[in-house]
Amino acid sequence: MSLRAACAALRANGRRLGLVPTMGALHQGHLALLGAARAAGADAVAASIFVNPLQFNASDDLARYPRDEDGDLTKLRDAGCDLVWLPPVEAMYPPGSASVIEVAGPSQGFEGDARPGHFRGVATVCAKLFLQTSADIAAFGEKDWQQLQVVRRMARDLDIPIHIEAVPTMREADGLAMSSRNRFLSAAERATAPLLYQTMQDVARAISAGLPVTQLLADDKSRLIAAGFAPDYLALVAAETLEPLAQKTTAPMRLLAAARLGSVRLLDNMAVPA
Ligand code: PAF
To answer: Quick check: pTM over 0.90?
Structure first.
């Protein structure tokens, strides 16, 4: 049965289909997306596992990206996933493919600067997955906040009739945001890693309390460097547009951070109460 036919069967009689796009190496955070899609109204949930070459650039780690297909399939089956789509690269990008989706606005800056072309790849593969499955709901983790805004913008701009459900970041007991890449941290790096979120919590509290944003961000970047991180950015932004903010506003704000610890690039973000 083709993917289209399988999805159409899951959507028969007005049933709503949820989609959880992933690149595999699944952890609790991914499995929470399945539950969130159901909670948002999906009667059936499909997951895709596709390590999307289009969102990796030369300096990125496509070859090093963790893969565990058997483990992923077991986890998805145990979580009650109704359909798993594991397309080969040629199915997603047949020879001669010449179209990509470029989202301006929220793609700019931050991960857009650090990983040129990354969001072009994400937007293109997500649009294809949305259209291939005709899913009614797609669940994305807030862990990749910028990605979430890019995907929302793309679906809205292209009139793709899908609800994007945002799912809060799942954290380890010590606060480290769950990520497939955490497995590459050494024991010493793993012990240091939660300091990123702790620092962000301190910064967010201080911003809410009205302390000067620019100075705070500079001081806390230095604190991260002293602890062994190589911070890429620590920034206060408007939550939806990702426009950098030099002072707090009453509109929703988000604190974004990316920092390298050894060979692992950690990403995190959190809401900043006004
Ligand atoms: O967040 C991810 O795992 C990927 O960027 C996604 C959304 C599955 C697109 O390849």
So the answer is: yes
